[in-house]
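INFO  loader      accepted 1 record
INFO  loader      residues=335
INFO  predictor   begin
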Amino acid sequence: MTDNWNMLGHEWAVDMLRRHVARGETRHAYLLAGPPGLGRRTLALRLAQALNCERPVAPGEPCYACRTCKQIEAMQHPDLAVIQAVDEDGNPKPGGTLRVDQIREVQRTLNLKPYQSQYRVAMFLRFQEANDNAANALLKTLEEAPSHAILLLTADTPDQLLPTITSRCEILRLRPLPLEAIIVDLLERGVDEDNARLLAHISGGRPGYARQLADDGVLLEKREERLNDLQTLLPAPRVEKFSYAEKLAKDKDSMRQTILVWLSYWRDVLLRVAGAETPLINVDRNMEIEFLAGRLDLSSARKVVSDHESTLEKMDRNVNSRLLAEVLLMDLPKM
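INFO  predictor   done
INFO  writer      dumping tokens
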């Protein structure tokens, strides 16, 4: 697969970026957008390798074997900075906050000449987790980036970022891959066919997430637990829902993961209510989904989906988690 930067899918994006590198037309900033587990970070690393490889196989084609390529792959290259949200102790944490001091620190290094390569590359992972001060600080760098600096941002959607930031980036909107491509990839990794089919559906066409599910049984167990909890909550009395909301809100990242699992489930219900032919994500829950779809009309199903989406957006804006959990659970359809 060397002709696609050792990536699964996203051929059009690889093609475009390879051309930019080969022709010396690399933009100073790119935003790689799409849901987590789709390959955003891998694509950013491949671009960094293509820009700085010591022995390129062809223009825009990294060798993956030289010291630079290996250091970039391990995210430990002196000219590569990886900036992402952290917890109170400064450890990387999805669902944390990317702070202004992290941006200021990388701004200082970006202004220095590269240490051993042609470009300094700064990767800002999950930039939707940046607070307003951090986002505004990055804007200054985007406007005045030195010629030897390339900024690579990842986010779930461009809409989560300030328009002033997205307007200064070349935006690549990465799409989920066809289920068959995921199935073939999992089969090649030794997953049996039934499991490969199930994991491809659950991943929603995200190769990184599918591989995670295949490698880590705990992720599947957690998903099962979250969907079982949802089934229990639908007919539960208010007092049980309040109690669950209190427990859910104690860990913001776990709450986000729970709501994402529930959202994928309710989207399946909505698809069935609407009579769409789109394949289900939670295909192993088909009977439950059909049952719920038979009990809801289109506007009710749409409302449940938009309630979950709205809760996730408000979490990103740091609205009180417990209040959000309580409102979400109280508004679930009565079954």
